[in-house]
Amino acid sequence: MRNALGTVDSVLLLGGRSEIGLAIVERLVRAGTRKVVLASRPEGADAGANPAAPNRREDAVARLRKLGADVLPLDFDATRPETHGPVIDAAVEFAGDLDVVIAAFGVLGDQARYEADPVAAAESITVNLAGHVSAGLFAARRLREQRHGTLIVLSSMAGVRVRRANFVYGAAKAGLDGFAQGLGDSLHDSGARVMIVRPGFVIGRMTAHLPTGPMPTTPDAVAKAVVEGLREGRRVVWAPPALRLASLALRALPQTVWRRLKR
Q1: 5 in helix, strand or coil?
Q2: Catalytic residue among 76, 105, 169, 201
Q3: Rg (CA), the chain
Q4: Is 114 among the catalytic positions?
Q5: Count of CA atoms in the C-beta half-sphere (13 A) of 41
C-alpha cells in the first residue's frame, strides 16, 4: 500500500526486460518503491537468442538493488496463461499487496513476415493480446481483493486506428486497448483501477531497425509521463501528450486516404 507520503511501496513488472517497463520501475524506485518483482521470459528463451548477449534481466536486477530496492526475478511466459496466476501469487508472497502492476510485454514483429507466415502472425497475437487478457484478469482479481492498486497497461497509438503497414500488430493493440478499457470499467468502485498508456513511436531496441516515425519519444519520456499520470490518477496517458489531438485527426481521415499511408 502507498505509505503516508504517497509513495508506491511495491511494483510488479510483467515484461521484466521491457525498456519502457524498466524505465517506469526505475523512476518509481528512485521515488521510494522498495519491493520490485521483475517477471519475464528467461534470458535466452527466445528462438535464436545469442548466448553471448548481455543478460538484461540480471543487469536490471543489479541496477535496481543498487538503488535500494528488494528485487525478485520471476520467469513469465505470455503464451502460457495457466502460469499467470501462480506468477501473481509469487509476487504477492514476496511483496505483499501490489500497489502497481505494469503489463509491458509484447512483440513488434514484421508485417511482411506475418503475411508470409500466418502462424507467426497468430503467435504474435497470442503474446500481444491473449497473454494480456489472462495476466490482466489475474492481476485485476488481486487488486480487487486488496481494494487498491493500479494496473498499468502499455497500449499503443498503433491501436487507435489500424494501418496497413502493421495491421497485425495494430489489431492486437486495438484489442488490448479495448480490453483495458473494459477491465477498468469492471473495477469501478472497487478501489483498484486501470491506467492505459498510449505511446507513439518509441525509439529503442524494438524499433532500432525502423525509420523514426512522427512525434517520436523515448522510454524514459514515456516513463516520466506514466509516473506523473499515476500520481495524478489519470485513466489514460498519451506519450507525448500531443498524440491525443493527433489521434482525433487520424480517426477523421477518409478511408481512401488512410489506406494509402505507407507507414
Answers
A1: coil
A2: 169
A3: 18
A4: no
A5: 17
